[in-house]
Write a structure and sequence with these properties.
31% of the residues lie in helices and 26% in strands. With 231 residues, the protein is of the alpha/beta class. Strands 1-2-3-7-8-9-12-13 form an 8-stranded parallel β-sheet. A 3-stranded antiparallel β-sheet has the order 4-6-5, with no helix packed on it. α2 (33-41) links the parallel β2 and β3 (45-51). The longest helix has 16 residues, at 81-96. The protein is globular and about 45 Å long. The two termini are 17 Å apart. It comes from Nonomuraea bangladeshensis.
Length: 231
């Protein structure tokens, strides 16, 4: 059986389908140790989802007043000692629960909170040191380059070619955005890391466009829906 490189799935179960991939990004709370061990036995590297700059939990001293307008989580003061301890604890728990590695999300804060970038690099280094993941995959984080490439094993370019326009529709990026993304991709491919693309589409034409463009840039690609419910 030919294995596919990577999948992002934020639902539960589907172990047979997930077994087709080399790497899968999953929500830690949705999988038991037994399920993760089964995937490991089948040669699948499981990466637990971890948000580094947004908190969907109850009110806490590290939270900012501002919230993500799309998903509702509170932005955080990334360098707050309580937040660092909280995230490192989540990472350690995920690894103890059977995950092989971690997927680090919400790293693109360079425009809203550039002052937090050094704290974010420290947090990633602390996760690497304390949780000891076999594999760290970062989502974007372009404002952290080139230092980020020394801390992780791979970087994901989310929404490289295609995007969700609203909750009901999908489409390609405009040409000017695609050109900027191409420049970032070329920079990433010059670094000693794995590079992946994650795109959003539902129709066959847009899906094929995303896979074809990722292939042109030497990137491994996965295409899914807005809430990452497809495998």
């Amino acid at each position: 059986m030919t294995r596919e490189p990577i999948a992002f799935y934020y639902g539960a179960g589907e172990l047979e389908r997930l077994s087709r991939f080399d790497k899968v990004v999953l929500q830690p709370d949705f999988y038991s140790r037994q399920e993760l061990d089964l995937l490991r036995e089948r040669g699948v590297q499981t990466l637990g989802y971890l948000s580094l700059t947004e908190d969907v939990g109850p009110p806490a001293p590290w939270q900012r007043e501002e919230r993500n307008p799309d998903w509702g989580g509170a932005f955080v003061y990334t360098g707050h000692p309580g937040w660092v301890a909280h995230v490192v604890g989540q990472a350690t728990s995920a690894m103890a629960g059977g995950f092989s590695g971690l997927f680090l999300d919400t790293l693109n804060i360079e425009f809203n909170y550039p002052e937090d970038l050094p704290h974010l690099l420290y947090l990633i280094a602390a996760i690497r040191e304390e949780a000891k993941p076999d594999y760290l995959l970062a989502n974007r984080g372009f404002g952290l380059l080139p230092q980020l490439a020394d801390l992780v094993d791979g970087i994901l370019f989310e929404s490289f070619s295609a995007r969700w326009v609203d909750t009901e529709s999908y489409g390609p990026w405009p040409d000017d955005v695609l050109e900027v993304h191409a420049e970032y991709a070329e920079r990433l491919l010059g670094m000693d890391i794995d590079v992946y693309a994650l795109d959003y589409a539902e129709d066959e034409e847009l899906t094929e466009f995303a896979y074809r463009r990722a292939h042109e840039f030497g990137m491994l690609c996965f295409v899914t829906d807005r809430v990452l419910s497809k495998i």
